[in-house]
Amino acid sequence: MNAIGLKPVPGIRMQRVGLGSYSDGDHIICVMKKGFLRIKAMEGSHLRVNVNGKGETVGPNGSCLDLKLANEVQGKNGNPSSLSTVGNSTNVKWHECSVGKSERQSLINQKGCVVWITGLSGSGKSTVACALSQILCQRGKLSYILDGDNVRHGLNRDLSFKAEDRAENIRRVGEVAKLFADAGVICIACLISPYERDREACRAMLPKGDFIEVFMDVPLEICEARDPKGLYKLARDGKIKGFTGIDDPYERPQDSEIVLTCKVGDCASPYEMAEKVIRYLEAKGYLEA
Ligand SMILES: Nc1ncnc2c1ncn2[C@@H]1O[C@H](COP(=O)(O)OS(=O)(=O)O)[C@@H](OP(=O)(O)O)[C@H]1O
Ligand SMILES: Nc1ncnc2c1ncn2[C@@H]1O[C@H](COP(=O)(O)OP(=O)(O)O)[C@@H](O)[C@H]1O
User: pTM for the whole thing?
Assistant: First the structure.
């Protein structure tokens, strides 16, 4: 569920494209100033819209309808105040400010985005994240690393490694990364993030193109041979249960923007890997406002 209460149908990616506007790639969903949604449905499929907990379905064949927000209330001056229900938060309202992302980006001459590094434990996520941050720093670009291990020391200390807690871990880091990107920062998130759906949910939080997935394509045998924290050994000995790659799944990304491959006897250095990410950011215009 996103900020305006639209619930995407599985398989349809919802993408925020501007103030109160969303797109599934082919169609635009707008929130009008006075609290209306105008929805242009796609042909041959349904888009479900959840307004204040009441499910509405937009039918196939390009049907078009307006929905009045069920939870819109009249303000004191008679104007709708566009209060919304978001998750468990009732009667909340988005507050806009005239200083926006583009103003912040101009100040620091770069574009905010999220570089999401996924891979097995020991695949080199943190090392590449750090190398990338160093290169960006040398080039006068502002970045910030959200490392799964580190975030679990604070914000996410209440979460375990069972699937639903990993999902919540990814969701929270995705939301924080989104804020950094909105601040104009190049946010580097490095988490195992083993489930495709959790990664894709983070992608859907960001404007198109601003979520850049980097897959550390490093075989388990290399990660296990590195084992810098001794966790694989503990997992093999049965002393850690549900360890990713041993007795817990890792779903390989199928369509990452960047793949950093490491094979036995053929592995680029962390710096070379980070340079590949830099070239991508440069080509896509993220290193200038
Ligand atoms: N059961 C289990 N499975 C995987 N990893 C485990 C587990 N228990 C502890 N650790 C340590 O936690 C680090 C991964 O945390 P993440 O937040 O990135 O994981 S996840 O994205 O929620 O799956 C991971 O750090 P990295 O090695 O940096 O990936 C491990 O050191
Ligand atoms: N490209 C690389 N080539 C060789 N060793 C690497 C490379 N990247 C990382 N390492 C080493 O692998 C180990 C795990 O790296 P780390 O960044 O902690 O992985 P992760 O964050 O994915 O758990 C560390 O000892 C690190 O020095």
Answer: 0.80
